[in-house]
Amino acid sequence: MATYRVPGLSGERFSVIYGIAGTETEARERAEHIRHEQTVEFPPDLLPAGDIPDVVVGRLEDFTQSGPNYYQALISYAVETAGEDLVQFLNVVFGNISIKPGVRVERIVPPLSYLNTLRGPRFGQDGLRALTGVTDRPLICTALKPMGLSAEAVAEQAYQFALGGIDIIKDDHGLADQKFCSFDERVARCSDAVARANAKTGFKSIYMPNVTAPYGEIQKRSEKAKKAGAGGFLLCPGLVGLDVVRYLSENDDFALPIMAHPAFLGSYVTSDQNGLSHYALFGQLMRLAGADATVFPNYGGRFSFSKEECQGIARGCSEAMGEIKSIFPTPGGGMTTDRAQEMIEVYGKDFVLLIGGGLHRHGPDLVENSRYFLRMLENL
Amino acid sequence: MATYRVPGLSGERFSVIYGIAGTETEARERAEHIRHEQTVEFPPDLLPAGDIPDVVVGRLEDFTQSGPNYYQALISYAVETAGEDLVQFLNVVFGNISIKPGVRVERIVPPLSYLNTLRGPRFGQDGLRALTGVTDRPLICTALKPMGLSAEAVAEQAYQFALGGIDIIKDDHGLADQKFCSFDERVARCSDAVARANAKTGFKSIYMPNVTAPYGEIQKRSEKAKKAGAGGFLLCPGLVGLDVVRYLSENDDFALPIMAHPAFLGSYVTSDQNGLSHYALFGQLMRLAGADATVFPNYGGRFSFSKEECQGIARGCSEAMGEIKSIFPTPGGGMTTDRAQEMIEVYGKDFVLLIGGGLHRHGPDLVENSRYFLRMLENL
Question: A135 to chain B nearest CA, in Å?
Fold first, then answer.
């Protein structure tokens, strides 16, 4: 058979570390499966000799035992398999193999040149600190809720939170474009409310509406939000695709910070033998896509992430990764004064503290409650 | 506290059956958690009295034991929580609760009026049969691969498959817009190749390019494909969001059948205590969104779906669901003559048989191989 040449292969590769369950023999078989399945998806013996088996098919670069019946396989892929396209990059990393139990993406290892094709977060930690004027403490964020309130009522909440000094006031991720609280009215009222409060206080609170929306509507809602004076975007990549984060972050017409929310993504991390690691999904991938802050449930709350998993996310947010900026881990849930101290010990000062019910429970006055939690954070 | 009224609530509700792991006490607690988490995400005792707790919060309508330490909870939601918006519908069904281990969406029960707001599949089984002219046997589909081939080479494959009478010739889901096989060139060449073959044979083979692409590019690629003469679209909703299926299927400018591919969705079904059931994800949701065919790995192949899970998908494709058309289950992998007979016993005649490697392995001549498998199907 003639040797088949694939034009334009640079020789550069990116890698993925997969955790693989099984005996050594089983795990090696699975690694073989992965490197073919994620690229050519074709019987190896039927591939035309040449660049396809030699370069296009994934390569097993390293294989080590990492636990009882658990192995780590480092598999590299030609950068040309994924182009400069985040969607296809995800497809190569975990497309078909997501269907295989016992295979988990532990870590993505992109090469520098590839990282340079992704802009990553526009703001990152430094940019978000500059926007909000918060230099030396964790940022504090809350959500407008409960679902069912009118746009007027959530705007009044936004006003009080902003008066109280909450740095980021976001829509609850369940606020979309419901009849009882339409996107247009909510965004206009809340943006205005936060601006009025800022004019009084001198703070730089920002309002982040939820722009998670039907395909084709996302850019329209983002444009409207920008025009209305919103200070950022909340987005659920699990509902609309991670690439929407990339789209919003790269678009110079928007140029607002993005907070990524984990809705509909939980199934990727509920098994330690399938899916993606917390580090890879909520740290690396959100950051690669361009989120400036990544929301996740803090350990010890009403969900089940462990402390180590949360720390993994925080590492993925700030570990060196080419020119890609560091972003804010945004742990949420179950906030109390005691927990804030512990969170600073775990996350340092570079995180966004997401507080929901606690702000409402502390007392009847949302302005006072906000001030109370803000003072507490400033004094830690 | 004054009673808070939410305007515009119709009283109509849709429901979700969740499978919940745990003791009865634990499972009941989880059901309580679900109905709040998926709607108001707010401490119940702090909700304003009135419509929010009474109507907006999910309602536990039924709770039964379905196995040892396993329960089924039927929870209903006001249709207004999700509007007429598939993205927000998914969010209410499984957004935050995806993060909770031990909770699985078994089945979605939409009310008729809600189904009427979704167009669903434009073609469905009957439409796709009409397009391809296949009346009384399963349709046969194959994929252009391996990745690394030029556009010219895959078009030559497409030509041979079409000459041989394969009904649907789709891009492998790994073909995106790589330098070695650009979308534009591939779609032009393959559409042309299939048209030339059809002109010779009198068959009505259709070519379905992969339009899974970056946000904002999907509609452009779909337009190009339609213009070039493609006969349908392949899409990976796991990479770009299920709503893109809805977008493509509703858009009268495109008006081509859609085949949904399971890439990056596997993690939703690898655990039987989290995620979504095969029936709900690959059957109900793909169909609700508007896919005309839903690809999944057949049981007994290189993935791990069971026969029962595959049958569940097939049920989800055709069970009565308002005005929504029935669609084709499209099991793939490991096709042999023996298996085709068995597949007909399991799926009936209303499915698309997806055959990959087998078509290449049977002999060196793809036209002859295609004819061989087609004859075999016709004679079963």
Answer: 30
Pair (A34, A157) in one structural domain = no
Q: Between B366-378 and B151-163, two packed helices, what is the crossing angle to 10 degrees?
A: 40
Q: Taking CB atoms and an 8 Å cut-off, how many pairs form between chains A and B?
A: 304
* One domain, residues A83 and A201: no
Tokens 């969001």 belong to B241
Q: Which of B20, B91, B305, B365 to mutate to test the interface with A (most CBs of A within 10 A)?
A: B91
pLDDT in tens, B221-237: 999 999 999 999 999 99
pLDDT exceeds 70 at position A334: no
Distance from CA of A8 to the nearest CA of B (A): 7
Boundaries of domain holding A345:
124-378
B18 forms beta bridges with B73, B105
Each residue's pLDDT tens digit, A220-230: 999 999 999 99
pLDDT of residue B334: 65
pLDDT digits (tens, 9 = 90+) for B31-46: 999 999 999 999 999 9
For residues A282 and A303, the model is more confident at A282
Give the residue from A97, A115, A133 where a domain finishes: A115
Q: Which residues of B touch A183 (CB under 8 A)?
A: none
Report whether B296 contacts B310 (CB < 8 A).
yes
Q: How much helix, strand and coil, in percent to the nearest 5, is found in chain A?
A: 45, 20, 35
Nearest CA in chain B to A244: B215
Q: How far apart are CA B190 and CA B161, in angstroms?
A: 11
DSSP state of A156: H
Distances (CA, A) of A242 to A214, A281, A287: 14, 10, 10
Distance from CA of B346 to the nearest CA of A (A): 22
Percent residues over pLDDT 70 in chain B:
98
Selecting from A40, A98, A218 the residue whose C-beta is nearest the C-beta of B148 gives A40
Distance from CA of B118 to the nearest CA of A (A): 13
- Name the 3-class secondary structure at B51: helix
Torsion of CA A290, A312, A116, B219, to 10 degrees: -40
Place of tokens 């690959």: B282
Output the pLDDT for position A110.
84
- Distance (Å, rounded) from C-alpha A54 to C-alpha A47? 10
Interface touch A179/B56, C-beta < 8 Å: no
**Beta-carbon separation of A47 and B146 below 8 A:** yes
Instruction: Decide if A266 and B98 are in contact by the 8 Å CB cutoff.
Output: yes
Point out the domain boundary residue: B115, B142, B175: B115
Tally of structural domains, chain A:
2
Q: Residue range B192-219: average pLDDT?
A: 97
**pLDDT at B361 > cutoff 90:** no
- How far is Cα of residue B26 from the mean position of the Cα atoms in its chain? 33
Same domain, A256 and A150: yes
Please tell me which residue of chain A has the smallest CA distance to B55. Answer: A148
Confirm whether pTM is higher than 0.80.
yes
**Measured between beta carbons, which residues in chain A are less than 8 angstroms from residue B12?**
none
The pLDDT mean for chain A works out to: 95
**Running DSSP on this structure, what letter comes out for residue B267?**
G
Closest in B56, B172, B270 to A147, CB measured: B56
A82-98 pLDDT, tens digit per residue, is 978 999 999 999 999 99
Same domain, B209 and B334: yes
Q: Could you tell me the CATH number of the domain that includes residue B172?
A: 3.20.20.110
A35 lies in some domain: yes
Give the pLDDT confidence of A27-51 residue by residue, as tens digits: 999 999 999 999 999 999 999 999 9
Distance CA(A41)–CA(A29), nearest Å, equals 15
Asked whether residue A30 falls in the same domain as residue A159, the answer is no
Name the minimum distance, in Å, from the CA of A297 to any CA of chain B.
9
Q: Judge whether B327 and B338 are in contact, CB under 8 Å.
A: no
Q: For residues A56 and B147, what is the distance between their CA atoms, to the nearest angstrom?
A: 7
Contact A91 B174 (CB under 8 A): yes
